[in-house]
Design goal:
Blueprint: E1 6-8, E2 14-16, E3 20-21, H1 27-40, E4 44-46, H2 54-64, E5 72-77, H3 84-98, E6 103-108, H4 118-130, E7 134-140, H5 144-153, E8 160-164, H6 172-180, E9 184-188, H7 200-209, H8 213-223, E10 227-228, H9 235-242, H10 251-258
Parallel strand pairs: 3-4, 4-5, 5-6, 6-7, 7-8, 8-9, 9-10
Antiparallel strand pairs: 1-2
Helix pairs in contact: 1-2, 1-9, 2-3, 3-4, 7-8
The structure holds NADP nicotinamide-adenine-dinucleotide phosphate.
């Protein structure tokens, strides 16, 4: 079986450090792709209400025949549902779409600072965790000031902060802040959606360890301690991205990849992003 290590979250829940991302997996493909990922060995799936594919992800889990408790499933609150009652209703809709009676991790997807409702959304997630329908709760795209506000105004500390991290955006300050607060960092777009894969330094390290650029970039994230869930719609690349636990990068190779940082995002800056779906 899988050699993927677990990370211990601050509420005692274990999460597989490597999972499978489903952003941009079309709803009609989600069951098939999820099933392929589970057959390859992934036991951690990352979806979101705004991806529109929860129904297919849940169907893929059932099609695998695996016991529900062997698979860690994360979903995330729609940006347009930060009010308490809206958040609770949206969570119910997620359970319905997934066909589950609980999720493993539920996240506030974006802070949307100009809308100023993320504290209310976080309190709604705390209610959901208290009644056991989410085994853990966390946030995504939260910066230090957003996390400080939760710490000042709420009792529950997020189990994770899911943020954009890859060799061109190493996020050292925010990752250190998360660690200090007992919050596990999840690195989204760990391949920078493919942009880092032809970087000469990445290619050089890949040649040196006889692995692919994607494996080297994911291994770098794993050795830094982050939780990752690369997305691919190709079974060959899905298997490649899962095969990370029989080699190591040296300190020098780790440092060379970290030195590629140029604070370059592939997605929006959470301080300026306030979009809600219509
Ligand atoms: N919380 C948030 O706001 C947020 C935002 C973005 C993403 N996420 C989560 O993070 C997950 C991963 O991020 P992401 O999907 O944006 O990007 P990513 O995993 O960094 O990159 C995915 C892209 O890289 C390609 N790729 C994957 N494996 C490859 C390989 N071995 N060789 C060459 N190309 C490869 C994929 O193409 P093919 O499909 O053709 O293989 C796809 O275009 C998402 O799926 C989602 O679950 C969360």
């Amino acid at each position: 079986m899988s050699t993927v290590p677990n990370v211990l979250l601050n509420n005692g829940v274990l999460i597989p450090q490597l999972g499978f991302g489903t952003f941009k997996v079309p709803p009609e493909k989600a069951e098939e792709v999820t099933l392929q990922a589970l057959e390859i060995g992934y036991r951690h799936l990352d979806t979101a209400q705004m991806y529109g594919n929860e129904r297919g992800v849940g169907a893929g889990v059932r099609a695998s025949g695996l016991p529900r408790e062997e698979i860690f499933v994360t979903t995330k609150l729609n940006n347009g549902r930060h009010g308490r009652d809206q958040a609770l209703a949206a969570f119910d809709a997620s359970l319905d779409a997934l066909g589950f009676d609980y999720v493993d991790l539920f996240l506030v997807h974006w802070p949307l600072p100009a809308r100023d409702q993320y504290v209310e959304a976080w309190r709604a997630l705390a209610e959901i965790a208290a009644d056991g329908r989410a085994r853990a709760i966390g946030v995504s795209n939260f910066h230090q000031e957003h996390l400080r506000r939760l710490a000042d105004e709420c009792e529950v500390v997020p189990a994770v902060n899911q943020i954009e991290v890859h060799p061109y955006l190493t996020q050292d300050a925010l990752r250190a802040f998360d660690a200090e607060a007992g919050i596990a960092t999840e690195a989204w777009s760990p391949l920078a959606r493919g942009r880092v894969l032809d970087d000469p330094v990445v290619v050089q390290v890949a040649d040196a360890v006889a692995r692919t650029p994607s494996q080297v970039v994911l291994r770098w994230a794993i050795q830094r301690g982050d939780i990752v869930f690369p997305k691919s719609s190709d079974p060959g690349r899905m298997a490649e991205n899962f095969d990370l636990f029989d080699f190591d990068l040296s300190e020098q190779q780790m440092a060379a990849i970290s030195a590629l940082n140029r604070d370059e995002r592939t997605g929006p800056n959470p301080d300026e992003f306030n979009w809600i779906p219509q």
